[in-house]
């Protein structure tokens, strides 16, 4: 049936009365994604492990924008999460300690500790330079010296009683025997009587024990002095700095971890007073760094819970890392070089990741799973986690994790991960699926108009007049490939409006007109249509041998769609068929050359089933037929050419010419019913371009399945030629309808006698098959007679 012009013109019956989009109330939020929105709301209500969200949809449907916008609004109702800091671990320096504080307290603690370390070092220095401290230390030294003096006096007295004098030198204690009031030399001692020598030897042994005891007491006095001096220093320092620590502890008394940490800092200060008093500035700076605070998560300026979108989800960008610096050719690090990752920043809120980017980065997906399964964030550099590094590194204490992760993916990636990684089912129990189209009804059109108006308001653009809005809706339906639907690829629509605005401004238009939108669409298509133009130039030069006039036997114009990442367009293709005597069946040349996809191979088998059901009931099939897509050197996939292939085969078998000015697209089942196909608009426009390149005859057109009529969203050039009768669209429901259009003959119905109407296409096919059968049988009989003669 021929489609009339009015049946092909795009109309939106639900447009309200308005002059420009300025009269339309801007839409709030996103449109047409109620299913996805409900899924997200469900996930947010369930605060349990595993209820993270997989956001699935085609690129351009606003997945990330919707999720980010929705979560940002939702997060405002939530409390701001805690700050996190890493501090020096005095008991185990290789494992920096993680401490959480109320939002805003982290930066305060960092500032307080910087001031405290400065004040402590300054006060310690002043304390030990004070007169009071010098006086007390002098008293302690005097007391110590008195005790040491008494001790050595007692030693000298006991030595004198034993006949010795004692001298204290730098090398130790020296004893000298005294006889008759004079010191003895070794030679003089040897000249004394034996009984005297024996006495001195005995007394020398006694004196040695006394000296050892005195030295032990002296060392004990030294230790007591040092301890008392340390206690004095500690008391003096504590008296000075204790008030500082008491004051800061009072500020954080509600946080046990901070108070405990401050106590350890205080104890460390008191234990290292000598270093803090040192004039070595590097040593002082070392202690200042030790007492500093590494604020890795600061939520002081955050309103509600965090919503983090990590654009580059590498392993370290997710889990954080420990950085190093080089000094003297040695790699060094400390707790101040611990850096936060996206999990730290999103903790207590939401983390949004794009799966395609996540999977590109080694071990990033494993990092996400490990964090969600363990419910904690462990900072460990990748080289250390994999055991590839021998550099000694820190092992920061893990931080508890409370985050809901939203993964954004295309359907293909989602289903692959869901099938091959069982952790996906455990960790991402909620699927938020984005639709790519809207049913065209009054409510949805109203929402769509609101989106157009809000786009103009958001980007401060001039508004669109009514005709421009209608063209935008036309473009949306073309993206959806259905006149009864609207595309939800709102990013495409928004960018088209902005391009049209740029054109309107160049023309000094105060509103965006239909012509501005048309020009924007043309410019957009021109930018991506280089390959299409190359095909068109080959068709014009007849390098691609497409016939758009005349009649041919066994040849039909089929239609294919070239799918590029940013553009798709239709291209006519010559489908030829040949029939000859031989083994019955259809040989698909593409399939034999391994250039046929599975769906196309199935379509060829369907064709064989159709021929068997329609014609083999009358006469056995005794011919072999071949089908070929001429000048096609890539893979053929899909079943949209099966209708054209059947017509080409019928034409080849019955020797009936087929009109070359008509192209055919449509799938077919074994009963001959024509089924809908994809890309019908691109196919029609592709053959229309070919006809214009070769010259319009007024009888050219395309046969499409009737069920595809709603999918036609044709451009103005095609519609203009249809309106003027230079180009035509025919819709068919059965193969016989297409046969009659392309051959100009009746397809032929079964009569009461079981045959087909005389002169019909089906009748001629049966006759051709019967003739082929007779030839085949005669050939067999002739061969048998020859064999019989030879045997005689």
UniProtKB/TrEMBL annotation:
Organism for this UniProt entry: Pseudothermotoga lettingae (strain ATCC BAA-301 / DSM 14385 / NBRC 107922 / TMO) (Thermotoga lettingae)
E.C. numbers: 3.4.21.53
Protein name (database record): endopeptidase La
A molecular function GO annotation: ATP binding
Family (UniProt): Belongs to the peptidase S16 family.
Keyword match Hydrolase: yes
Alphabetical keyword list: Hydrolase, Protease, Serine protease
Entry's Gene Ontology BP terms: protein catabolic process; proteolysis
Keyword Hydrolase: yes
Catalysed reactions listed for this entry: Hydrolysis of proteins in presence of ATP
InterPro entries registered for this protein in UniProt: AAA_32 (IPR041699), Lon-like_helical (IPR046844), Lon_proteolytic (IPR008269), Lon_Prtase (IPR027065), LonB_AAA-LID (IPR046843), P-loop_NTPase (IPR027417), Ribosomal_Su5_D2-typ_SF (IPR020568), Ribsml_uS5_D2-typ_fold_subgr (IPR014721)
Domain of life: Bacteria
Catalytic residues, chain numbering: 640, 683
């Amino acid at each position: 049936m021929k489609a009339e012009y009015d049946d092909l013109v795009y109309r939106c019956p639900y447009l309200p009365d308005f002059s420009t989009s300025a009269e339309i109330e801007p839409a709030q939020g996103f449109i047409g994604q109620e299913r996805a929105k409900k899924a997200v709301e469900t996930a947010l209500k369930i605060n349990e492990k595993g209820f993270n969200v997989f956001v699935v949809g085609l690129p351009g449907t606003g997945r990330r924008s919707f999720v980010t916008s929705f979560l940002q609004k939702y997060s405002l109702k939530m409390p701001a999460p805690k700050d996190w800091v890493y501090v020096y671990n005095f008991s185990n320096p290789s494992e920096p300690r993680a401490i959480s504080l109320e939002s805003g307290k982290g930066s305060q603690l960092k500032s307080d500790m910087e001031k405290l370390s400065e004040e402590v070092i300054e006060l310690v220095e002043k304390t030990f330079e004070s007169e009071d401290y010098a006086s007390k230390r002098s008293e302690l030294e005097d007391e110590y010296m008195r005790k040491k003096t008494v001790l050595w006096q007692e030693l000298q007295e006991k030595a004198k009683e034993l006949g010795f004098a004692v001298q204290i030198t730098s090398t130790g204690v020296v004893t000298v025997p005294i006889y008759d009031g004079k010191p003895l030399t070794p030679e003089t001692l040897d000249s004394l009587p034996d009984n005297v020598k024996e006495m001195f030897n005995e007394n020398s042994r006694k004196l040695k024990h006394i000296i050892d005891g005195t030295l032990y007491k002296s060392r004990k006095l030294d230790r007591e002095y040092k301890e008392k001096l340390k206690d004095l220093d500690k008391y003096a320092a504590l008296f000075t700095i204790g008030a500082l620590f008491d004051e800061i502890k009072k500020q954080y008394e509600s946080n046990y971890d901070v108070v405990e940490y401050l106590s350890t800092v205080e104890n460390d200060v008191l234990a290292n007073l000598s270093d803090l008093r040192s004039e070595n500035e590097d040593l002082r700076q070392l202690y200042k760094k030790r007492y500093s605070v590494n604020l890795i998560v600061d939520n002081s300026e955050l309103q509600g819970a965090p919503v983090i979108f990590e654009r580059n989800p590498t392993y370290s960008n997710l889990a954080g890392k420990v950085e190093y610096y080089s000094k003297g050719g040695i790699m060094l690090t400390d707790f101040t070089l611990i850096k936060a990752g996206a999990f730290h920043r999103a903790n207590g809120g939401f983390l949004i990741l794009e799966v395609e980017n996540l999977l590109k980065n080694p071990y990033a997906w494993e990092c996400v799973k490990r964090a969600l399964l363990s419910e904690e964030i462990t900072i460990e550099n990748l080289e250390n986690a994999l055991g590839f590094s021998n550099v000694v590194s820190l092992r920061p204490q893990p931080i508890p994790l409370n985050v809901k992760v939203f993964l954004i993916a295309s359907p293909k990636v989602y289903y692959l991960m869901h099938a091959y990684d069982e952790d996906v089912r455990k960790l991402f129990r909620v699927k938020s699926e984005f639709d790519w189209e809207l049913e065209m009804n009054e409510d949805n059109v109203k929402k769509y108009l609101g989106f157009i108006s809000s786009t103009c308001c958001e980007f401060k653009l001039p508004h669109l007049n009514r005709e421009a809005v209608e063209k935008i809706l036309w473009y949306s339906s073309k993206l959806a490939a259905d006149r009864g639907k609207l595309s939800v690829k709102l990013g495409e629509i928004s960018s088209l409006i902005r391009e049209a605005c740029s054109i309107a401004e160049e023309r000094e238009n105060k509103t965006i007109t239909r012509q501005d939108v048309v020009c924007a669409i043309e410019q957009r298509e021109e930018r991506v249509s280089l390959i299409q133009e190359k095909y068109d130039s080959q068709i014009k030069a007849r390098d691609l041998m497409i016939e758009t006039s005349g009649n041919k036997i066994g040849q039909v114009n089929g239609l294919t769609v070239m799918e590029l990442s940013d553009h798709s367009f239709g291209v006519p293709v010559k489908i030829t068929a040949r029939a000859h005597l031989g083994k019955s069946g259809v040989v698909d040349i593409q399939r034999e050359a391994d250039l046929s996809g599975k769906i196309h191979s199935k379509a060829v088998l369907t064709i064989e089933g159709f021929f068997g059901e329609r014609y083999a009931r009358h006469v056995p099939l005794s011919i072999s037929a071949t089908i070929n897509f001429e000048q096609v050197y890539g893979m053929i996939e899909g079943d949209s050419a099966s209708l054209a292939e059947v017509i080409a085969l019928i034409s080849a078998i019955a020797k009936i010419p087929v009109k070359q000015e008509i192209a055919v697209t449509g799938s077919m089942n074994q009963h001959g019913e024509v089924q809908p196909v994809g890309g019908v608009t691109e196919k029609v426009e592709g053959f229309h371009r070919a006809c214009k390149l070769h010259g319009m005859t007024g009888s050219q057109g395309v046969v499409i399945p009737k069920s595809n009529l709603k999918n036609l969203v044709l451009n103005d050039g095609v519609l203009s030629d249809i309106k003027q009768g230079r180009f035509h669209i025919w819709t068919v429901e059965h193969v016989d309808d297409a046969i009659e259009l392309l051959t100009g003959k009746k397809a032929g119905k079964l009569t009461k006698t079981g045959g087909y109407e005389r002169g019909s296409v089906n009748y001629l096919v049966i006759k051709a098959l019967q003739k082929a059968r007779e030839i085949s049988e005669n050939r067999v009989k002739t061969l048998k007679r020859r064999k019989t003669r030879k045997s005689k």
